[in-house]
Amino acid sequence: MNILQTESSPNFGGQEYGWLLESRELVRRGHFVFLAISGLNEKLIKMAQEFSLPFSLVPFKNSFDPISIIKLIKICKSVKIDIIHCHSSKDHWASFWASKICNIPILRWRHIINPIPANWHRSYIYRHGCKFLLVRCKSIKENLINDNKIEPTKIFIIPAGIDLSVFYPRKDSEKIRKELNIPSTVILIGIIALLRPEKGHKYFLEAAYLLSKRYSNIYFLIVGGEVKKGISLYELKRRVSELGLKDRVIFTGYRKDIPKILSVLDILVVSSYAVETTSQVTLQALAMKKPVVATTIGGIPESLCHGKAGILVPPKNSQAIAEAIQYLLSNPQHTHQMVTFGYEYVNQNFSLVKIVDKIEKIQKKALSP
């Protein structure tokens, strides 16, 4: 089938990377995938080019943007689109009007756990503006049912899939440590996330401060780029100086080589206090047999079984993060059991191949009379 993926977000993170991976897998299976994306999202444009996915730039200025609607109608007709996947609000509204004119079903994805306002305007597009809703975790489905009165049978839980041909146990650490000037003898704890407040960098750094008092051989890696309405790198570096961690904390900025970055870590921390659903980086770490400490936000507990695949801690709790890391370092046998369980759990439940199998079934269901 011919599939149109739309995305109005100007940022590039797990949401965009996830559906790009799924798109590439759909192409591998013989489908044609075309992207309608914001010209403001430079990283998404570059990734689309690297994935050899054809695309068109659409302004997506607001909820009712005639230029975007007309452009989508032209794409749907010229490419003979069979089904539309929408990923954010502005592109969903533009696709809604285009789908009515072209008589094409919409699958609306919801990637974040933030509740949707229960007013008629926001709820309407979810109730009547799509054939099915595809959500990344159980808590999103529950919010849509309870707050927005969406029919449960209309909602399907489709977690993010992991490309197991890319994320697997490996040893790339020496080259990365040399590049980042990290001694081979130190323990390395990392966070991999865009520099957004809700990713909890504040609590990661406070936990780093607590751990630096207990361990002389521990470093901390912050991987991720700046985004609009996010935290400035300057602000984070100033906080590092205030905590006396200047010699212990390394900033890498945005990195494309996440498998290599994960290979160098001894422990991954996911300190988010909002937004997270499946948390791709959590699954990626588990697939690479890396210990994980993560907060109990969104869909993280669905993939990180506490005490089995990793350690869950309350959000906004630096002390709990530090204690969990200390436990992993002090109990190597249990830590080994957790990474083994996590590796098997991800392979069985979150492989990209199995996730796209589910997507194909829903697409066929949406196209059936």
Task: Kindly describe this structure.
The protein is α/β, with parallel strands linked by helices and about 375 residues long. Helices cover about 45% and strands about 15% of the residues. It is built from 15 helices and 13 strands. The strands form two sheets. Strands 3-2-1-4-5-6-7 form a seven-stranded parallel sheet, sandwiched between helices. It has a six-stranded parallel sheet with strand order 10-9-8-11-12-13, sandwiched between helices. Strand 11 (about 265-270), helix 11 and strand 12 form a beta-alpha-beta unit. The radius of gyration is 21 Å and the shape is elongated. About 45% of the residues are buried.
Secondary structure: elements and pairs:
Elements: E1 2-7, H1 14-28, E2 32-37, H2 42-50, E3 55-57, H3 66-79, E4 83-86, H4 89-102, E5 106-110, H5 120-128, E6 132-135, H6 138-148, E7 155-157, H7 173-179, E8 187-192, H8 201-212, E9 218-223, H9 233-242, E10 249-253, H10 258-264, E11 267-270, H11 280-287, E12 292-295, H12 300-303, E13 311-313, H13 318-330, H14 332-349, H15 352-367
Parallel strand pairs: 1-2, 1-4, 2-3, 4-5, 5-6, 6-7, 8-9, 8-11, 9-10, 11-12, 12-13
Helix pairs in contact: 1-15, 3-4, 7-10, 8-13
**How much strand content do the residues show?**
15-25%
Low-confidence stretches: none
Distance between the termini: 16 Å
Mean of residue pLDDT? 95
Oligomer kind: single chain
Shape: elongated
- What is the tally of helical segments? 15
Order of helices and strands: EHEHEHEHEHEHEHEHEHEHEHEHEHHH
List the strand order in the largest sheet. Answer: 3-2-1-4-5-6-7
